[in-house]
Every structure is written in C-alpha cells, then in structure tokens.
Amino acid sequence: MEIVEVGPRDGLQNEKQILSTQDKVTFIELLVSAGIRRIEAVSFARPDRVPQMADAEGVMAGVPRLDDVSYIGLVMNDRGLTRAIATGVDEVNIVVVATDTFSMRNQGTTVEESLAGLAPMVGRAQGARVKISVTIGASFGCPFEGEVSTERVMRIVRFAQQAGVDEIALADTIGVGTPHDVRRLVAAAKQETDRPLRLHLHNTRNTGYANAITGVEMGVSALDSASGGIGGCPFAPNATGNIGTEDLYYLLKRSSVEIELDFAQLLEASAFVTEKLAIATPALLGRAGWFPAPSGA
User: Fold this and answer.
1) By CB neighbour count within 10 A (0-12 exposed, 13-18 middle, 19+ buried), where does 178 fall?
2) What pLDDT digit, counting tens, does each position of 181-237 carry?
3) Which residue in the list 31, 125, 165, 233 is annotated as catalytic?
C-alpha cells in the first residue's frame, strides 16, 4: 500500500492564505523526510483561476531531487502538460471529471472534450518518459448534477485504459462516498482495467477513513491524503479537506497494512503547513497522539 501525498497541491489550492514558494518547498522537504515517496507537488492550472498554484515552476525548481521520490504535477489540458514536462515532473496526473457541469466549472471543457484530448496527452507524456495517471473527478457524486452512475465512471475508465495510462484514480471530490460506493466502483473498475487503482478521498461527511480502509480491503494500490487533512476543491461548493496523512497512516498501521513512515516527521510537516496557513489542523493525530503506551500502573 502506498500513500500519495497531495497536501502541496490539493491541500493548498483551496486555502485563502497563499504560501510563499520557499514555504511550499520546505513543506515538501518535511514530507520527504517523513518517508513519503510520491508527492503531488504542484498544479499547472491557470494562475488567475488557482492563484495558490501560480508558482508551480518555482516550486519544482526548489524541491529536493532524490532517486526514490516521485513528484506529480496535476494537469487539465495540453498547455498544462507542456508546462509540467518542462519542469521535469516524474508523473502527470490528468483530470477528467465525470459530469459536464462540474467539468466546465473545473476546467472549461465538457467530458467529451476531455476524453478527446486524453490519448494525445498520454502520447506526449509517454514521449517525454513521464508516467501518467488519470483521476476521474466526481466519481462518487457531483455537486451540480447529483448521482453519478457507475457506467458513466466506467466509460472514462475504459478510455483511460485504451489511452495507455499507468494508473487510474477514482476521486470522491466532494466527499459524498460511502464504503458501499467504494466497493461498487472498485469492483466495477477491476472488470474494466488491469491498471493499478488509486482512491482520492475527502472527509467532508466524515466517511473518508471508512472509505480508505474499504479501498484497502478491495485491493487498491494507493490512497491519496493531505498532511493535516487540509484542502478541498475551489470549484465545488462546501468541499472540505482531504483525509489527513497522519490519521491515515495510523489507520493503516493499526490495521496491519505494511507501510513505514516517520510519524513524528508527519506531525512536524502538518504543524508547519497549518501554522503557515493560520488554520487549526483538521486531522486528529497531532492532538491525540499514537496508541498510548502502557502506563505501568
């Protein structure tokens, strides 16, 4: 099982406070020190639409380059992909939203337009020797169109499979999913693709961690989380933070999942970023601590 840290991107993009480039680099350095090895570091979105990500090139120029650390850049179109490749990202995460209304608000394209551009983008990324993930936004539900059918999501899964992506992520962008939905979508996706599956979960309705452990039981290969449980989507009403990396790590370890991170360093990264954002930490392990040791009484 692998934790993909999305705090430097999804965690920061919905916060009012815009961190300096150096603070973002320091945040990433702390996450690397904690043992995180896949980090969604930046988004190559339009700066006027997502000003929190306007310095993507500067962040990528400053991050520590280690052989075993993979930096991911989120892209939504061909222009973003060009920028991402130029910065030397190790992976690109291409977003295709499952509904037209949300897709238009999020990236200014219909679902069909996104799908039409997918294969050429994958080809360009492969030519640059960059790994490719596709994240299917609003897989579990849309804030504008409501329920999203399994078949609508699976159609995008099939497109991604045919395009030759390396990984497919199912995103609960607005945090409406339940374990039942995780089982439904993951089981269906496994019938459509042999690519590794990842889950991107938000804890908006307090189901994110139940969804995460259900995903583990269903055999997904990776889970997204954000340090401190920060973040959300600026184009989705009432969207709140991702599941917290430190809380997810506790859940996985106590569930006998094989994963090794430095818990104290995870808390240091979380404390750093939430202090810089001037917000309370949504995640709980920084307050509760690890499972208590015997008192000796």
Assistant:
1) middle
2) 999 999 999 999 999 999 999 999 999 999 999 999 999 999 999 999 998 776 666
3) 233
Contact in structure between 278 and 17 (CB atoms under 8 Å): yes
The C-alpha atoms of residue 160 and residue 167 are separated, in whole angstroms, by 9
Q: State the Cα–Cα distance between residues 141 and 67, nearest whole angstrom.
A: 37
SS3 percent helix, strand, coil of the chain, rounded to 5, is 45, 15, 35
Mark whether 142 is an active-site residue.
Answer: no
Start-to-end Cα distance in the chain: 37
Four-way CATH pick for 2-288: 1.20.1600.10, 3.20.20.70, 3.40.50.300, 3.40.50.150:
3.20.20.70
Q: Which residue has the tokens 């190559």?
A: 44
Q: Tell me: the pLDDT tens digits for 79-92?
A: 999 999 999 999 99
Going from N- to C-terminal start, the domains of the chain cover 2-288
Burial 123-155 (b: 16+ CB within 10 A, else e): ebbeeeebbbbbbbbbbbbbbbeeebeeebbbb
